[in-house]
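Deliverable D4.2, example record:
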Amino acid sequence: MSEYYFVATALPSITWGKSPEITLHEYLFFLKDNLSECDRLFLDHYDNEGGLPHFLSLFEFSANAPIDNKKLSRALCCPTLPSFLRSYLAFEKRLRFVLVGLRAKQLGRNLTTELQHEDPHDELVTELLTQQKAKNYAPPEPFEPLSDLFECLFDQPLALHEALCRFRFIAVEEMMGFDLFSIDYLLGYLIQLLLTTHWMELDRQTGMALLDTLLKETA
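Output generated by the structure prediction step:
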């Protein structure tokens, strides 16, 4: 397994809530230049728009993005997908099902209806349906904290979205491990960069929209 001493020491730290000192395009270019041929296989398939790898389309953190669990499932079967991304995508798939359960209970929706297009043999779907008649949905580990988040922030969509992005950010940090020079660490850094960039851009857009509304009201 390759050890990336130069790459890891050259990276600026990422802190939640602060603009990253490196852009996504810069980091992907940096990776392509420094990863071994084996480790960069997943970067070699590019999208037609923006020069970004296809696999990045799996990470739709936007509040309005459609949840495509079938797409996640297909990605998990990809033979060239690095083990860290495989682990993270499995986490992301579970998280999205947990969110379905929490939203359904908060809105009083029928879980059977919400999951009608999912694979009924999927253990995550089965786990949700066993709680169909329960008053509250109890998420499995490590998603238990999300119950309180939904309870406190469900009527504050932007705050809830920020809390979910931060939850992902912390989860990635735990999954990255302590080997700063491993491919797992570099891929974890990529996910954290995606999350932070997404949130900072969303926060900036929201701030500009609020300012625009204020200016119109005072004109």
